[in-house]
Amino acid sequence: MSKKLAIDGLEPLTHKPAKERGYPDKYTPTDKEDYMSVKQLCYFRDLLLGWRKELEAGNLSTMHDLKENSAIEADLSDQATLEYEQTLELRNRDRARKLINKIDEALDRIRDGEFGFCQETGDPIGIGRLMARPIATLSIEAKRRQERKEVSYAG
Questions:
Q1: Using one digit for the tens of pLDDT, what is the confidence trace for 115-130?
Q2: Residue 59 domain-assigned?
Q3: Ramachandran sector of residue 36 (left: φ over 0; alpha: ψ -120 to 50; beta: rest)
Q4: How many independent structural domains does the chain possess?
């Protein structure tokens, strides 16, 4: 379970040749391969880095928009609408910031050879779950137990 994998910088390697990326063009991990092989780890690395890059671009766009649209409107209803829209955008950016932190943690797990394994049980999380949620840290069964526990505490 402790495979070391070097990740060079924070740029996805999707534009590079397969030999440099670590997986072929149009590759999708499957359950039929060795679990968390170098090929799969490289694929998930690029998936996470690409996702991170998109979120950062959104953050930059928001900062630009907020600077451009920060003028006080003469009409109070226009000002209220602008402030409401800015509040929503800032809330979305805060979610993106938290997601970037989770992506960074997943990249750390790739570096440490812990990616793809449940933090609670050590069992494989599964390719299907990781394809749907690459930042997942718990297997489906461990997540269900956690949710049942949360519901019992809440009620």
A1: 999 999 999 999 999 9
A2: yes
A3: left
A4: 1
Task: Please report whether residue 65 resides in a domain.
Answer: yes
Instruction: Judge whether 103 lies within some domain.
Output: yes
Sequential DSSP letters for the chain: --------TT---TTS-HHHHTS-TT----TTSPTT-HHHHHHHHHHHHHHHHHHHHHHHHHHHHHHHT-SPPSSHHHHHHHHHHHHHHHHHHHHHHHHHHHHHHHHHHHHHT-TTB-TTT--B--HHHHHH-TT--S-HHHHHHHHHHHHHHH-
CATH number at residue 44: 1.20.120.910
| Average pLDDT of the segment spanning 59-74 | 69
